[in-house]
Amino acid sequence: MATYPEYIKAALRRAHYEQMEEGEWVASIPGFAGRWARGPSIEEARERLIETLYEWIPVHARIGKNRLPDGDGMAGQATFAEHCWCRNTAWTC
């Protein structure tokens, strides 16, 4: 089974980045409906996208949708229904 960081890293390999007319960047991942982020630079948009994924995964798992979208070949490995995580510490509870 994939860990949260492994899953997010794999999903980010499929991320798309687009610069808007006003200069702001938008980052999204195909197959992750509603998961996108904006930022003044491509790096900031990526960081914000990572934050949305960290917030979204446990919510997605807890509402009964524990089958997460394919994170670049990790779909069969990524089910986190009973797992928790901590962004700034060790990845166990």
What attributes characterize this protein structure?
2 helices, single chain, Double Stranded RNA Binding Domain, elongated, 3-stranded antiparallel β-sheet
Give a verbal description of the structure.
- The protein has a 3-stranded antiparallel sheet.
- β2 and β3 (36-39) form a beta hairpin.
- The chain has 2 helices and 3 strands; from the N terminus they run αβββα.
- With 93 residues, it is an alpha+beta fold.
- The model is unreliable at 76-93 (pLDDT under 50).
- The protein has one domain (1-93): Double Stranded RNA Binding Domain (2-Layer Sandwich), CATH 3.30.160.
- It has helices spanning 4-12, 42-62; strands at 16-19, 25-28, 36-39.
Quote the CATH topology: Double Stranded RNA Binding Domain
- What CATH first level would be assigned? Alpha Beta
The average pLDDT score comes to 76
What would CATH call the architecture? 2-Layer Sandwich
Our count of helices gives: 2
Question: Strand-and-helix sequence, N→C?
Answer: HEEEH
CA-CA gap between termini: 16 Å
Query: How many extended strands?
Result: 3
Q: Strand count, sense and closure of the main sheet?
A: 3 strands, antiparallel
Main-sheet strand order equals 1-2-3
Share in β-strands? 5-15%
Q: Provide the low-confidence segments as ranges.
A: 76-93
Name the shape in a single word. elongated
Determine the fraction of residues in helical runs and give it as a percent range: 25-40%
How would you classify the helix and strand content by structural class?
Answer: alpha+beta
How many distinct domains?
1
Report the C-alpha radius of gyration, rounded.
Answer: 14 Å
